[in-house]
Design a protein that fits this description.
By secondary structure, the protein is of the alpha+beta class. It is built from 2 helices and 6 strands; from the N terminus they run E-E-E-H-E-H-E-E. The protein is elongated, with a radius of gyration of 27 Å.
């Protein structure tokens, strides 16, 4: 027997990532993380089939998230990342006087800077 559980869908040989259980009394299909062992009345699904899962009319699908799985970045995360890249790409301000707006303080390990790239001194030297 293979140690990797496979998708329960016919002709699908991909590895299972989620377990589907039906609660007939509540007309609910529960899709959660892969169960620790195979149950006779549960269905193991691959990533593609678990994403495309639909329930019969009148039924509810409950998707339980796996807290150990990495979360997908949200729009806010991507926007924050883009803002950080733009900030790093800005040229440093070069004013020495009070109208100069203040200089950035350089990192003691920083030797040179070009755009958003920095040359750092080796910590050993």
């Amino acid at each position: 027997m293979s140690p990797v559980r496979r998708c329960s869908r016919t002709a699908c040989g991909r590895p299972a990532v989620a377990t589907l259980t039906y609660v007939y009394a509540d007309s609910t299909a529960v899709l959660g993380p892969l169960a620790t062992y195979a149950e006779p009345h549960c269905y193991d699904l691959c990533a593609e089939h678990s994403e495309r899962l639909t329930a019969p009319r009148g039924w509810e699908v409950v998707r339980l998230s796996d807290p150990s799985a990495p979360s997908r970045p949200s729009g806010d995360d991507l926007e924050a990342l883009a803002n950080a890249v733009r900030e790093a790409a800005r040229p440093p301000e070069r004013g020495d006087g009070p109208q100069g707006g203040g200089r950035r303080t350089a990192d003691p390990m920083e030797v040179a800077r070009r755009g958003h790239l920095r040359v750092l001194r080796s910590p050993d030297s």
